[in-house]
Write a structure and sequence with these properties.
- This protein is mainly alpha-helical.
- The chain has two domains: 182 residues, no CATH class; 293 residues, Rhomboid-like (Rhomboid-like fold).
- 56% of the residues lie in helices and 3% in strands.
- A two-stranded antiparallel ribbon has the order 1-2. The chain has a two-stranded antiparallel sheet with strand order 3-4.
- A hairpin with a 2-residue loop joins strand 3 and strand 4.
- The radius of gyration is 49 Å and the shape is elongated.
- One of its GO terms (molecular function) is serine-type endopeptidase activity.
- It is a multi-pass membrane protein.
């Protein structure tokens, strides 16, 4: 058994090179002894100049089996043949046989590139007395060994059952002929053949060990358990990995939702579409038709426009609105009480209620599908496909009931107070200019950031201008609660304004997570504060007179104004 093992594992100890398989006499000297010598092509490499180093093909498993398993079990599993069963070993048939007839021979028959050679060529290679059939069979077998790489191990010797054996000199002449006429990278083929042989022998040894129950192949999906038993650290690691994977999936899902829906409100930032919360899942054909018509562009991508083309038309509209606001501030004359529709209603209340009704009407009109297309065009500001008129129209537009309620609550709380300080014309000028400039700043910011998948609507910019101007003009150490003038908050107007600005700056750092357009808010605050700076000295006397009158007013007059101007 041990002798058989050594013979079986011989290729792993180092493959024999072709130079070892041949006698010490070189191919050139063998060819020179013949009468008709043939030159070898100078550029063709000769196989066998150095032995192939294949010690790396000896895998650890084979070393383990060789040193421990088979050597210790050789005597246990071997049987000594009895005298009756002994048979004389057959004598070798030819000197070229290498004595390894126990290996199964493969059929060695690779066609020559140019086909079989004629009899004259065979005679020139092998000498007289060799038929064309025998010569071509030997050449095909030799070519097979060159192509497969087995030439480095087997050489030019053939076993029983192969082609007709030739003297070594003639076999070497045939090899020289093939090398000169059919170039093959014999060294690379020999390396590949050695690797295949190593894998084959390893598989045979593993199978033999399995048959002898000395080795059991492990399941690829099976993991080895710890010798110390169950590990809490390993269980904790697996739980943490599962939690991390769930968190990553949730983040990806939220990112996909935000990509589809935009970043929220501005006043509200949101996708360019009609509000969908009040629609049924099963839409009628009538609704589907107007929903299709409401799409200003069928393409999902924003049109290719320069930053100037997106901003300059809206900037022109903003300049026109600012001119109108300046005219209101300088030229507005309040009508006499006899010309008013409700003369007993304070002007501040009338103005703010008119603004509230406009916003409420547009909010309800959003529920009428035939209006979706013009509203998307003129009451919704979209940086991806901007319309200049939407710079003014979006400050009167709301789609969310909560958004409308909060904005109108601020309007009715802060609007009458500012109206009472500056008058109707100046109040409307501050309100409109704050909304328009806030929308313009928001548009420029979105274009600069190339954030085209959002839309802007809402009165938040105009209300921010109202609050900023009111807090600058109040200049008080305590602030009166809206609708409850008898209660005062011990916070200065400048402190409250600073808190509002700090919140907006903090919101910018959240990068859209708050759902509000903080750029539009800051633009509104800046507009209101700038207007208050120009009006502060003019309003001082007006405010003093208003404070004297409030002492003689009732609740309605104290809250919404005196009923004049």
């Amino acid at each position: 058994m041990s002798n058989a093992w050594i013979v079986t594992c011989r290729p792993f100890a180092g493959l024999r090179s072709f130079s070892q398989a041949l006698p010490s006499r070189s191919i050139a000297s063998a060819a020179a002894s013949r009468a008709s010598a043939r030159a070898v092509h100078p550029h063709l490499p000769r196989l066998g100049t150095a032995p192939l180093k294949c010690h790396s093909l000896h895998p650890p498993l084979l070393r383990f089996l060789e040193q421990r398993l088979f050597t210790t079990s050789a005597t246990a599993f071997s049987r000594r043949p009895s005298a009756a069963s002994k048979k004389p070993s057959p004598a070798p048939t030819t000197g070229e046989n290498d004595g390894k007839s126990q290996d199964k021979e493969e059929k060695e028959d690779t066609p020559l590139p140019g086909g079989n050679l004629p009899q004259a060529k065979i005679t020139n290679i092998f000498g007289p007395g060799t038929s064309a059939k025998e010569g071509n069979a030997f050449l095909r077998a030799l070519q097979h060994r060159r192509v497969t790489g087995s030439l480095a191990e087997k050489g030019v010797n053939f076993r029983q059952g192969g082609p007709v054996a030739f003297p070594r000199e003639r076999a070497l002449n045939a090899l020289e002929y093939l090398r000169s006429t059919c170039p093959v990278d014999e060294e690379a083929a020999a390396v590949e053949w050695a690797q295949r042989e190593a894998e084959r022998l390893e598989a045979e040894l593993i199978q033999r060990a399995q048959n002898l129950r000395l080795y059991k192949k492990s399941d690829p999906g099976q993991t080895l358990g710890s010798v110390y038993g169950h590990s809490e650290l390993e269980a904790l690691r697996k739980r943490n990995e599962e939690i991390y994977e769930r968190e990553q999936d949730e983040k990806e899902r939220q990112a996909a939702i935000k990509e589809r829906e935009g970043t929220g409100k501005t006043g509200t930032l949101g996708p360019v579409k009609a509000k969908a919360e009040l629609r049924k899942k099963e839409k009628s054909e009538w609704v589907k038709y107007y929903e299709e018509q409401a799409m200003l562009r069928k393409e999902k991508e924003a049109p290719k426009m320069s930053a100037a083309a997106r901003i300059l038309p809206s900037a022109f509209v903003a300049a026109v609105v600012l001119g109108i606001c300046y005219f209101l501030h300088t030229s507005y004359v309040p009508p006499p009480s006899s010309a008013r529709l409700w003369p007993d209603t304070p002007p501040a209340l009338s103005t703010c209620l008119a603004l509230l009704n406009i916003n409420l009407f547009i909010f309800l009109a959003w529920r009428f599908p035939p209006l979706w297309r013009p509203f998307n065009k003129y009451l919704l500001q979209t940086p991806g496909y901007p319309t200049a008129a939407s710079l003014l129209g979006n400050i009167f537009s709301h789609q969310d009931p909560k958004h409308l309620f909060m904005n109108m609550l601020i309007l009715m709380g802060a609007g009458p107070q500012l109206h009472e300080l500056v008058g109707r014309g100046t109040f409307l000028a501050i309100y409109l200019s704050g909304g328009v400039l806030g929308s313009l700043f928001s548009l420029a910011s979105s274009v600069a950031a190339r954030n085209f998948a959002v839309s802007t609507l809402g009165a938040s910019g105009a209300l921010a201008a109202t609050i900023g101007a009111l807090l600058m003009l109040k200049d008080a150490d305590a602030f009166t609660l809206p609708f409850f003038p008898e209660y005062r908050i011990p916070v200065s107007s400048y402190g409250l304004l600073g808190a509002c600005l700090a919140y907006e700056v903090w919101g910018l750092t959240r990068r859209g997570q708050t759902g509000m357009d903080h750029v539009a808010h800051l633009g509104g605050y800046a507009t209101g504060m700038a207007a208050a700076g120009g009006l502060k000295w003019q309003v001082a006397e007006r405010r003093r007179r208003a404070e004297e009158k409030k002492r003689e007013m009732g609740f309605l007059q104290r809250t919404f104004g005196s009923g004049k101007d």
